[in-house]
Amino acid sequence: MNKRPTINDVARLAGVSKRTVSRVINGASNVGKATRERIDEVIKETGFSPDKQARGLAASRSFLIGLIYDNPDALYIDQVQRGVLSVCSEKGYELVVHPCNYNTDDFISNCIQFVSRSRIDGVIILPPVSEAKELAEALREKQINYVRMASVDLDDHSNIVVSDDRAALRDLARYMVSLGHRDIGIISGPQRYYSSKERLEGFLETLNELHVEVPVDRIIEGKNSYESGIECARTLLIQSPRVKAIFANNDEMAAGVLKVAHEMGITVPDELSVAGFDDNLLAARVIPALTTVQRPVGDMAALAARKIIAQIEGTEVSETETYLVKPHLIIRDSIKRV
């Protein structure tokens, strides 16, 4: 056989229907032993590799998983996709991505249309889109499988993977204060997002417990982009007296702080300590290497993929799996004792 064998070839050589071949591929129990063995032998002899069409005939599934996001951080999205694909490739699923605009009035209908149009079996939703209660309700109403990645516990544990950002920021605050930092500036993320609020509140609450006050004019709201990190850093670093340390809500904005400090002749970490959040690929490559909070994005995405596939296939996720993941502090060169 010169061309790649198809399910039709297997059915013809085994003397059965294409649907019977599909049942064997999917492990269905309603196929006789002799027929199953004959089909397995033909598959072995021909080197046939089942595709989604063959599997879908019996399973009534597309073997497609959707990924919905609205996030300016391309490195974060890359980590998520790698995590999801590590599970999809093992389980025989493909990934379909759908960037959307979370701030438009029609974003929920846009997401539902994507699911219907793509005929996906389930969807993984990233923050900040995952924070929309209305979207989760719409997916449940349409009986669409979904898993949300978020920074707060918003849903049934089978439908969510949570990053405990608040606890991680408490660790960062304690670390900075232990190095003698008292004059700290903050570049927060957009406060309409749960993740940004969790990080800011966890950081400020711990500083307050440690008797460190951050004046209101030293808390600047950014947009989680490199460009907004630059803009906010300029606002903070022209203040007098100048801050001795800055925490930025993500590594993209922290990198913007490093750029502005360099432009202003401020040495990091000798004159200014800087910390970020995420530990994306950028964090270890900037100079100086960035102290940050590592959120295990790839592991979270892989867990979300296992949860969504369990929903699709009607199975249980292993008892060892959890819904809650705690990020942890990564200490590098951008923070110094004062």
Automatic annotation (TrEMBL):
InterPro entries: HTH_LacI (IPR000843), LacI/GalR-like_sensor (IPR046335), Lambda_DNA-bd_dom_sf (IPR010982), Peripla_BP_I (IPR028082). It comes from the Bacteria. Pfam families: LacI, Peripla_BP_3. The keyword Transcription regulation applies. The keyword DNA-binding applies. Transmembrane segments: none annotated. Residues 5-59 form the HTH lacI-type domain. Keywords: DNA-binding, Transcription, Transcription regulation. CDD domains: HTH_LacI, PBP1_SalR. GO terms for molecular function: DNA-binding transcription factor activity; transcription cis-regulatory region binding. SMART domains: HTH_LACI. This is LacI family DNA-binding transcriptional regulator. It comes from Alteromonas stellipolaris.
